[in-house]
């Protein structure tokens, strides 16, 4: 700072300004040459506390900015490295996966001090999209061989001590112009991996600090190894196909060998039928700890038709975790011209009595003339047709008891395990505390009525649209959703009532803070409280989007969305924008 003031004082053009500054900030003095020097005292201290600087660094996502900050100040090095190397994603569409991996491996070998900063490692096998090596099945197989045979992967994983999230995703990109990978190359066989690499990958799930474990696009995965993953808090399984289907007794033995099953979040995408059956066996034989469930694209098979066996197993899973599930994200298979469909029958969301957060997709770009959704879009509910049906299930007072699995006797599960061990000449081990001591398979299900209301607190709607005008072209549908969420005696599945009130004329501004919009005073008077309310605990409606749009379109969409649901806003429900809409 002193050099800055000396430069100001030595400049002919700025000397008058320096004299003014001296009069304001400090007194003038003289040196040995008789020249007047000015000593300036800044009005405030420009040194930021390290805690404040670290908070600023935590909000920076640009890699080059973080790198530059770590270079210019030694005090920022640790925080910048924590941000830079926290997540290492080796998936790059414009670089071969092997080359990307080797660059990272060499960096870790050359700079071992960087290893503790890696917390999330995503090992991905990719190739440049549209490159020559991607055009033939032979090159496709050779390109994937490195990840299954390069034993340096074992050394790399052992050298990273602080990994809390691990992901292994194999390539499933499409051939240019075909829309599908080469025949027979959809997944990589688990048996093709070297034994040491398999042990190193599964060994990550045994780390005490590991929080998330993800597998994608793998076939012939052994079912007993899936049981060993029950100790992970967040388990993500994408297009994983099992090799065999073990018996229930084998699953019980595997669960009993786990010290503390702790699955709290489960993500299933394009799931195999066998995998769902094993997951049901795992969740059936210990107290459910599952709080978050994400289901992506398992409502239909590869041919586009509903797979009844998969749906039945998913329905069984929902019944097993109904008492603990608090967050449910349903992402059906949908395209730009099709409306998103809810879970097929017999799945009924009324069983989720503890659900706090529900997420669903609403496609405003769906074409009523294409596909099987044409009849749904002709109703006044428009794009909210499926969402309102699911919300009606959540608001229903009908719940269900668990059904007994077929071909399994109604005897304690622990007795089954003891009988199996005795038949093999083994001594039954003490029952772990996480197993129900007196657990019995429940009788066939029956419905019953509960007086409790829905405890839903947040509704997240992922909007799909091409143009902002599509968001306001369905005013009747918005009216149906608003009336349904706000309560009252409105029959959402009947003809919508026309608004006879005059809307806010804009004289009163709506408050906005941190992306949350609340009601204005005029709206409170316009829409008084009604009872009963279907969702008395509802506090926020979140709109999000993963489709990247232009800034102008995004701004227009924000303006439209925050003006919707006036009755909900009048009851204190906040409208929040997330994702690409922020």
UniProtKB/TrEMBL annotation:
This is Uncharacterized protein. Residues 500-510 have a biased composition (Basic and acidic residues). Residues 497-518 are annotated as: Disordered. It comes from the Eukaryota.
């Amino acid at each position: 700072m002193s050099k800055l003031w000396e430069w100001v004082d030595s400049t002919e053009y700025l000397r008058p300004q320096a004299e003014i500054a001296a009069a304001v900030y400090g007194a003038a003095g003289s040196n040995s040459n008789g020249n007047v020097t000015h000593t300036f005292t800044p009005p405030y201290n420009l040194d930021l506390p390290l805690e404040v600087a670290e908070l600023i660094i935590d909000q920076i996502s640009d890699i080059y900015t973080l790198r530059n900050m770590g270079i210019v100040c030694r005090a920022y090095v640790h925080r910048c490295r924590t941000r830079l190397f926290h997540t290492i994603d080796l998936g790059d569409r414009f670089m071969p996966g092997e080359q990307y991996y080797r660059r990272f491996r060499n960096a870790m070998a050359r700079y071992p001090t960087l290893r503790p900063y890696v917390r999330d490692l995503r090992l991905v096998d990719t190739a440049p999209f549209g490159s020559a090596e991607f055009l033939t099945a032979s090159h496709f197989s050779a390109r994937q061989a490195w990840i299954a045979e390069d034993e340096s992967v074992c050394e790399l994983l052992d050298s990273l001590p602080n990994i809390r999230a691990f992901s292994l995703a194999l390539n499933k990109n499409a051939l240019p112009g075909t829309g599908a990978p080469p025949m027979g190359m959809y997944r990589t066989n688990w048996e093709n991996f070297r034994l040491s690499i398999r042990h190193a990958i599964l060994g990550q799930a045994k780390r005490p600090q590991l929080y998330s474990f993800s597998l994608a696009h793998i076939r012939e995965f052994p079912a007993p190894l899936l049981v060993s993953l029950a100790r992970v808090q967040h388990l993500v399984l994408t297009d994983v196909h099992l090799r065999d289907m073990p018996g229930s007794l084998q699953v019980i033995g595997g669960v009993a060998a786990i010290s503390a099953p702790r699955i709290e979040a489960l993500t299933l995408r394009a799931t195999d039928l066998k995998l769902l059956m094993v997951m049901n066996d795992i969740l059936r034989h210990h107290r459910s700890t599952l709080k978050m469930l994400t289901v992506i694209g398992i409502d239909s098979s590869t041919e586009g038709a509903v797979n009844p066996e998969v749906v039945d197993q998913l329905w069984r899973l929902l019944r097993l975790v109904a008492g603990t599930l608090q967050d449910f994200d349903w992402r059906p298979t949908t395209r730009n011209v099709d409306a998103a469909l809810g879970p097929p029958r017999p799945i009924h969301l009324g069983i989720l009595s503890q659900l706090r957060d529900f997420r669903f997709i609403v496609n405003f770009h769906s074409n009523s003339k294409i596909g099987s959704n044409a009849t749904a879009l002709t109703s006044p509910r428009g794009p909210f047709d499926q969402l309102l049906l699911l919300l009606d299930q959540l608001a229903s007072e009908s719940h269900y008891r668990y059904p007994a699995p077929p071909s399994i006797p109604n005897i304690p599960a622990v007795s089954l395990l003891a009988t199996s061990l005795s038949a093999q000449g083994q001594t039954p081990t003490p029952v772990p505390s996480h197993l129900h001591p007196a657990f019995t398979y429940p009788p066939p299900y029956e419905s019953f009525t509960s007086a409790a209301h829905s405890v839903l607190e947040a509704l997240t709607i992922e909007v799909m649209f091409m143009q902002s005008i599509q968001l306001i072209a369905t005013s009747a549908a918005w009216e149906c959703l608003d009336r349904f969420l706000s309560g009252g005696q409105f029959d959402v599945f009947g003809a919508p009532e026309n608004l006879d009130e005059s809307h806010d004329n804009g004289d009163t501004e709506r408050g906005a803070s941190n992306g949350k919009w609340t009601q204005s005073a005029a709206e409170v008077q316009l829409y008084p409280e009604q009872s009963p309310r279907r969702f008395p605990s509802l506090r926020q409606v979140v709109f999000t989007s993963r489709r990247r749009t232009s800034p102008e379109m995004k701004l227009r969409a924000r303006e439209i969305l925050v003006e919707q649901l006036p009755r909900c806003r009048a009851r204190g429900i906040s409208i929040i924008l997330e994702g690409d809409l922020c």
